[in-house]
Amino acid sequence: MNDTATTPKTTPEKARGAMARTLQQLKAMIVNGELSPGEQIRQEEMAEQLEVSRVPLREAMNVLADQGLLVHRRNQGYFVTKRAPGEHAQIRRMLHLLENELMSTIRWPDEDQLAMLRQLNEGMRRSAAAGDVRSLIELNRQFHFRMFSLSPNNLILEEVRRLWAMAEPLMWNKYERADDRARTLDEHARLLDALAARDRARAVAEMEKHRYSAEAGVPIELPGAGPDLPSRARVQPAS
Fold it and tell me: Which of 40, 110, 201, 210 pairs with 33 at a CA distance of 20 to 30 A?
Protein backbone atom coordinates (compact mmCIF):
# COMPACT_ATOMS: atom_id res chain seq x y z
CA MET A 1 0.00 0.00 0.00
CA ASN A 2 1.21 3.47 -0.83
CA ASP A 3 2.16 5.34 2.37
CA THR A 4 0.81 8.58 0.93
CA ALA A 5 -2.68 7.08 0.94
CA THR A 6 -2.71 6.77 4.73
CA THR A 7 -0.43 9.61 5.87
CA PRO A 8 -2.33 12.86 6.51
CA LYS A 9 -1.06 15.67 4.36
CA THR A 10 -0.23 19.07 5.77
CA THR A 11 -2.08 21.60 3.66
CA PRO A 12 -0.77 25.15 3.22
CA GLU A 13 -3.73 26.38 5.28
CA LYS A 14 -2.89 24.06 8.17
CA ALA A 15 0.78 25.04 8.00
CA ARG A 16 -0.08 28.74 8.14
CA GLY A 17 -2.48 28.10 10.99
CA ALA A 18 0.14 26.20 12.98
CA MET A 19 2.67 28.99 12.47
CA ALA A 20 0.14 31.69 13.46
CA ARG A 21 -0.82 29.85 16.66
CA THR A 22 2.82 29.25 17.52
CA LEU A 23 3.64 32.89 16.90
CA GLN A 24 0.81 34.04 19.15
CA GLN A 25 1.75 31.65 21.96
CA LEU A 26 5.45 32.40 21.84
CA LYS A 27 4.86 36.15 21.72
CA ALA A 28 2.54 35.90 24.74
CA MET A 29 5.23 34.03 26.67
CA ILE A 30 7.70 36.85 25.99
CA VAL A 31 5.26 39.65 26.77
CA ASN A 32 3.98 38.15 30.01
CA GLY A 33 7.45 37.33 31.31
CA GLU A 34 7.37 33.55 31.06
CA LEU A 35 10.48 33.91 28.92
CA SER A 36 13.00 36.30 30.43
CA PRO A 37 15.19 38.81 28.56
CA GLY A 38 18.36 37.03 27.44
CA GLU A 39 16.84 33.55 27.80
CA GLN A 40 17.56 31.05 25.04
CA ILE A 41 14.67 29.37 23.21
CA ARG A 42 15.46 25.66 23.30
CA GLN A 43 13.71 24.56 20.15
CA GLU A 44 13.13 20.90 20.93
CA GLU A 45 11.68 21.66 24.36
CA MET A 46 9.60 24.58 23.08
CA ALA A 47 8.18 22.57 20.16
CA GLU A 48 7.14 19.86 22.62
CA GLN A 49 5.62 22.39 25.01
CA LEU A 50 3.60 24.08 22.26
CA GLU A 51 2.77 20.73 20.61
CA VAL A 52 4.05 21.74 17.18
CA SER A 53 6.82 20.61 14.89
CA ARG A 54 10.02 22.60 14.69
CA VAL A 55 9.11 23.99 11.26
CA PRO A 56 6.30 26.36 12.41
CA LEU A 57 8.33 27.11 15.53
CA ARG A 58 11.30 28.29 13.47
CA GLU A 59 9.01 30.32 11.21
CA ALA A 60 7.43 31.97 14.26
CA MET A 61 10.84 32.73 15.75
CA ASN A 62 11.97 34.32 12.50
CA VAL A 63 8.93 36.62 12.60
CA LEU A 64 9.62 37.55 16.22
CA ALA A 65 13.25 38.23 15.35
CA ASP A 66 12.06 40.59 12.60
CA GLN A 67 9.81 42.28 15.17
CA GLY A 68 12.71 42.72 17.57
CA LEU A 69 11.43 40.41 20.32
CA LEU A 70 14.02 37.71 19.60
CA VAL A 71 17.60 37.87 18.43
CA HIS A 72 19.24 35.13 16.36
CA ARG A 73 22.88 34.30 17.02
CA ARG A 74 24.62 32.20 14.43
CA ASN A 75 25.47 28.69 15.66
CA GLN A 76 23.78 29.43 18.98
CA GLY A 77 20.08 29.87 18.29
CA TYR A 78 17.35 32.30 19.30
CA PHE A 79 17.34 34.40 22.46
CA VAL A 80 14.77 36.74 24.00
CA THR A 81 15.95 40.26 23.27
CA LYS A 82 17.53 42.02 26.24
CA ARG A 83 17.53 45.78 25.84
CA ALA A 84 19.63 48.44 27.50
CA PRO A 85 17.84 51.38 29.22
CA GLY A 86 18.85 53.67 26.36
CA GLU A 87 17.16 51.36 23.85
CA HIS A 88 13.94 51.36 25.89
CA ALA A 89 14.11 55.15 25.91
CA GLN A 90 14.38 55.25 22.12
CA ILE A 91 11.39 52.92 21.75
CA ARG A 92 9.31 55.08 24.07
CA ARG A 93 10.35 58.23 22.20
CA MET A 94 9.31 56.76 18.86
CA LEU A 95 5.98 55.69 20.33
CA HIS A 96 5.51 59.17 21.75
CA LEU A 97 5.90 60.76 18.32
CA LEU A 98 3.89 58.21 16.34
CA GLU A 99 1.03 57.81 18.81
CA ASN A 100 0.63 61.59 18.90
CA GLU A 101 0.40 61.57 15.11
CA LEU A 102 -2.32 58.92 15.24
CA MET A 103 -4.27 60.75 17.95
CA SER A 104 -4.10 64.01 16.00
CA THR A 105 -5.55 62.34 12.88
CA ILE A 106 -8.21 59.99 14.23
CA ARG A 107 -11.71 60.08 12.84
CA TRP A 108 -14.26 60.57 15.58
CA PRO A 109 -15.78 57.25 16.71
CA ASP A 110 -19.48 56.64 16.24
CA GLU A 111 -21.71 55.41 19.07
CA ASP A 112 -21.00 51.74 18.37
CA GLN A 113 -17.24 52.31 18.35
CA LEU A 114 -17.40 54.29 21.59
CA ALA A 115 -19.50 51.56 23.17
CA MET A 116 -16.90 48.94 22.18
CA LEU A 117 -14.09 51.02 23.70
CA ARG A 118 -16.06 51.45 26.92
CA GLN A 119 -16.77 47.72 26.95
CA LEU A 120 -13.05 46.96 26.68
CA ASN A 121 -12.30 49.33 29.55
CA GLU A 122 -14.95 47.66 31.69
CA GLY A 123 -13.40 44.30 30.83
CA MET A 124 -10.08 45.68 32.04
CA ARG A 125 -11.77 46.77 35.27
CA ARG A 126 -13.01 43.24 35.88
CA SER A 127 -9.58 41.78 35.11
CA ALA A 128 -7.95 44.30 37.45
CA ALA A 129 -10.34 43.38 40.25
CA ALA A 130 -9.55 39.70 39.72
CA GLY A 131 -5.81 40.36 39.57
CA ASP A 132 -5.70 38.83 36.07
CA VAL A 133 -2.77 40.79 34.66
CA ARG A 134 -2.47 38.72 31.49
CA SER A 135 -6.05 39.50 30.50
CA LEU A 136 -5.56 43.12 31.55
CA ILE A 137 -2.62 43.58 29.18
CA GLU A 138 -4.43 41.89 26.28
CA LEU A 139 -7.52 44.08 26.75
CA ASN A 140 -5.32 47.15 27.11
CA ARG A 141 -3.73 46.36 23.75
CA GLN A 142 -7.15 45.94 22.15
CA PHE A 143 -8.37 49.23 23.66
CA HIS A 144 -5.45 51.25 22.34
CA PHE A 145 -5.38 49.77 18.87
CA ARG A 146 -9.12 50.11 18.36
CA MET A 147 -8.62 53.77 19.17
CA PHE A 148 -5.47 54.17 17.05
CA SER A 149 -7.19 52.41 14.15
CA LEU A 150 -9.55 55.37 13.86
CA SER A 151 -6.64 57.13 12.13
CA PRO A 152 -6.30 56.63 8.35
CA ASN A 153 -2.49 56.48 8.66
CA ASN A 154 -2.07 52.72 8.30
CA LEU A 155 1.70 52.68 7.86
CA ILE A 156 2.19 54.64 11.08
CA LEU A 157 -0.25 52.30 12.81
CA GLU A 158 1.73 49.23 11.76
CA GLU A 159 4.96 50.77 13.03
CA VAL A 160 3.28 51.52 16.35
CA ARG A 161 2.21 47.86 16.54
CA ARG A 162 5.82 46.78 16.03
CA LEU A 163 7.12 49.17 18.68
CA TRP A 164 4.39 48.17 21.13
CA ALA A 165 5.53 44.55 20.86
CA MET A 166 8.99 45.66 21.99
CA ALA A 167 7.70 47.84 24.82
CA GLU A 168 4.91 45.63 26.11
CA PRO A 169 6.97 43.42 28.46
CA LEU A 170 7.64 46.52 30.58
CA MET A 171 3.91 46.97 31.14
CA TRP A 172 3.93 44.11 33.62
CA ASN A 173 5.80 46.36 36.05
CA LYS A 174 3.01 48.92 35.87
CA TYR A 175 0.22 46.46 36.58
CA GLU A 176 1.80 44.94 39.67
CA ARG A 177 0.19 47.60 41.91
CA ALA A 178 -3.58 47.86 42.38
CA ASP A 179 -3.53 51.68 42.47
CA ASP A 180 -1.61 51.77 39.16
CA ARG A 181 -4.20 49.47 37.59
CA ALA A 182 -7.02 51.70 38.85
CA ARG A 183 -5.30 54.84 37.54
CA THR A 184 -4.99 53.29 34.07
CA LEU A 185 -8.73 52.67 33.93
CA ASP A 186 -9.51 56.22 35.04
CA GLU A 187 -7.14 57.58 32.37
CA HIS A 188 -8.90 55.49 29.74
CA ALA A 189 -12.25 56.87 30.90
CA ARG A 190 -11.00 60.45 30.48
CA LEU A 191 -9.70 59.59 27.01
CA LEU A 192 -13.13 58.24 26.09
CA ASP A 193 -14.82 61.38 27.41
CA ALA A 194 -12.56 63.49 25.18
CA LEU A 195 -13.39 61.31 22.16
CA ALA A 196 -17.11 61.49 22.91
CA ALA A 197 -16.84 65.30 23.14
CA ARG A 198 -14.87 65.38 19.87
CA ASP A 199 -12.27 67.54 21.58
CA ARG A 200 -9.01 66.80 19.75
CA ALA A 201 -6.73 68.95 21.89
CA ARG A 202 -8.10 67.31 25.01
CA ALA A 203 -7.77 63.82 23.53
CA VAL A 204 -4.11 64.40 22.66
CA ALA A 205 -3.44 65.89 26.12
CA GLU A 206 -5.11 62.96 27.88
CA MET A 207 -3.05 60.55 25.80
CA GLU A 208 0.10 62.40 26.85
CA LYS A 209 -0.80 62.10 30.53
CA HIS A 210 -1.68 58.45 30.11
CA ARG A 211 1.60 57.70 28.33
CA TYR A 212 3.77 59.26 31.02
CA SER A 213 1.78 57.53 33.73
CA ALA A 214 2.54 54.23 31.97
CA GLU A 215 6.23 55.15 31.85
CA ALA A 216 6.61 55.53 35.61
CA GLY A 217 9.91 53.87 36.46
CA VAL A 218 10.78 53.31 32.78
CA PRO A 219 13.83 55.14 31.40
CA ILE A 220 12.72 57.74 28.86
CA GLU A 221 15.77 59.99 28.59
CA LEU A 222 17.42 59.54 25.22
CA PRO A 223 21.10 58.51 25.16
CA GLY A 224 23.33 61.55 24.75
CA ALA A 225 20.61 64.02 25.73
CA GLY A 226 22.08 66.93 27.63
CA PRO A 227 21.56 70.61 28.34
CA ASP A 228 23.37 71.57 25.10
CA LEU A 229 20.82 69.72 22.94
CA PRO A 230 17.53 71.25 21.74
CA SER A 231 14.72 70.61 24.20
CA ARG A 232 12.74 68.66 21.59
CA ALA A 233 15.53 66.03 21.56
CA ARG A 234 14.57 65.08 25.09
CA VAL A 235 11.27 63.59 26.22
CA GLN A 236 9.35 66.12 28.28
CA PRO A 237 6.53 64.89 30.55
CA ALA A 238 3.13 66.44 30.01
CA SER A 239 2.11 68.98 32.62
Answer: 210
